[in-house]
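ZP: hey, is the zinc ion complex queued? I don't see it on the tracker
AM: it wasn't, my bad. submitting now with these inputs:
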Amino acid sequence: MKAEEIRTALPRWRREFHAHAEEGWTEFWTTARVAGILQSLRLAPRVGAEVLDRAARMGLPAPQRLAAAQRRARREGADESLLARMHGCTGVVADVGPATAPVALALRFDLDALPLVESHCPEHAPAAGGYASLHAGQCHACGHDAHTALGLGLAARLQSGPPLRRRIRLIFQPAEEGVRGAAALLAQVRDVPRFLALHVGLGLPSGELTTGAMSLMASTKFDAVFSGRAAHAAKAPHLGRDALKGAAAALLGLHALPRCGSGENRVHVGELRGGGARNVVADKAVLRGETRAANGEMAEDLYARARDVLEGAAAMYGLDCRINVVGSTPDADSDADFAAELAAIARELRTEQGKALFRQVRESAVMGASDDAAVFMRAVQASGGKAAYAILGCTLAAGHHAPRFDLDEDCLWPGLLWLEAVCRRLATARGQAAPAMPRPLSGIPHMA
Ligand SMILES: [Zn+2]
Ligand SMILES: [Zn+2]
């Protein structure tokens, strides 16, 4: 593809993915579309079950929802042969460069949307432009549609330019939201000496770039299912065991956990459902929550205390409480020397008019959030490699995870030029150190 074709394809691809928003593990249309574009670029993408460890998937939706999402993808024109190869799993991995050469760098791009109702007000550009989500209650409100487009743009640029001496691995990961997907693709970073993930926005305006985010927070996502006993609310409340009140007490107790100590930490309950009628003692309630902390020790302690609160509240109300961990990621830091190398490459880049491509390039910033790219980062670092998490400045119409979230598509082209420059530097440099000898991937800190 010519440069101008790729430049115009970036927002077009992003809008396609935006319209076909699919929640974690249901990205069947997105997977097929990504793989189809990669095939058209003369690459050989591996999809779904071909690349992913089924048993390591966390927070998987019910089988009926997975089946319904596959049927929907088929209705919306997803390639049948690719759907067959996926075997019910999503995600794509493709290598660019000579098949027998070592991998110089793996990059992670996330595919999934959020369970959120997108705004349809006329000031919201996707609604006004006719590319708002076609799927009720699912919305690309974090920018992963832009990440996926960037990954494809990178494949197109690398395939269009001079041949590479080493391979670049592009990992299109499902289910980043809820930190559920990376662990299932861990094998894809085995033997990889460099790893890079990126996110748009996160408070950084268009024209700026941070190459090495620090303090990605460890996080555990959990569902607590409270079971009690139903009874008549007036005639025999004493015979009931009220799951709703127990879950409500747990919610308040969780938010009363002191959030202080040796670093940033967070506790949040985002959903509480229970009961079914005003005059019945509720026999069931489900609470969905998360803990986060800037280091592993604090994260473990906070999650242990959250469990105590859940089990304590259940005991107070005579309930049974089952806690399921549905997502987990360790804390992580970018490697400062790799981030400095990435920043130096960004600072060298110029626009056609000869101006700096980025107004400001920083080598580090505190992340203040979680991303399961940390699973890959820790694995690569544990085997002697270097990893970084970059933030591509992108002015937003509303914050991440908000119904009117929208992003400045003009940030994509400079971001792509930088990613391409990084890949070319790492994959063509003569005399580059051989990839570090991998050590086993066990021993990676995991909260689950
Ligand atoms: Zn998000
Ligand atoms: Zn995100």
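AM: back. Residues 218-328 form a domain with the Alpha-Beta Plaits fold (CATH 3.30.70.360).
ZP: great, adding it to the tracker
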